Structure prediction request, 314 residues.
Amino acid sequence: MYGEIKIFTGNAHTELAKEVAEYLRVPISGADVFEFPNENIFVRLHSSVRGQDAFVIQPMSRPVHRSVMELLIMIDTLKRDSAGRITAVFPYMAYARSDKKDQPRVPITGRLMADLIQTAGADRYLTLDLHAGQIQGFFQIPGDELTAFHIQRDYLLAKGLPDVVVVAPDAGRAKDARYLADVMDAPLAIVEKRRYGNDPTAKAMQLIGDVAGRTAVLFDDEIDTAGTICNAIKFLKEAGAKDVYAVATHGVLSDPALERLATAPLTELILTNTIPIPPEKRLPNMTVLSVAPLLGEVIRRIHFGISVGALFNE
Prediction:
């Protein structure tokens, strides 16, 4: 049995860390985490963590490389102070799309990220909705990949949307979209798309299924530049969808995402706070659901050795 739960955070998402700490009814443990003028990052703990159960909450969000380095240096600091166990909690994982060699002479950076976290000294990891399931196999340490699915499902069901059709933005998301369609007692449609080279914007090509006169719910894992999702929204409206809702776990929202989404014929955009979304990025039709209670409950279960999987069967 480890000592007390100790919650640490870098500068990536202090609000989420505070919400998690409030759920657990524990304070955030003090630490100095700052950058010198030469861009070197410094970390110093305010008190000893010897034998304690330490959790570092730090999504790999913008600025990505600073967030990643803060996470790694904090893990190393905790390891050198003899923490009993260290869990890296990154609700969003950078480089998760680089999960395989899909063209010659390219890296598998997702594997590199896993190696770095382990080498820094993490004993466990905790994340949400990885872009590809095989990334779990990159880690040689135990971990939990959670999903925001149940939070999103409950929110959508409470809205009581009429004549729903759940839409996967590509074939790769069809399985997850099928789960949502099942619980909403709705049909499934798939937007077939093609991506050309390293162009981040994919083009919607054809629709498998019927959306005419229905409320379409687009279901994806993340929205980055919003090119793909906005093409899909336009495509669905042209196919006769009455209203379009877009649901995603990670709101990366890289430029020019906000400009695209602001002019898209979208009824509501539903994201979570795995990545901080500041007020200036919140559109009038945007809803941000909190994953803090989910993270807090899973951290509690990890600490006390209670099944995490059972949480989703209750």
Observations:
- The helical segments are 14-24, 64-80, 109-120, 149-159, 174-183, 227-238, 257-263, 292-304.
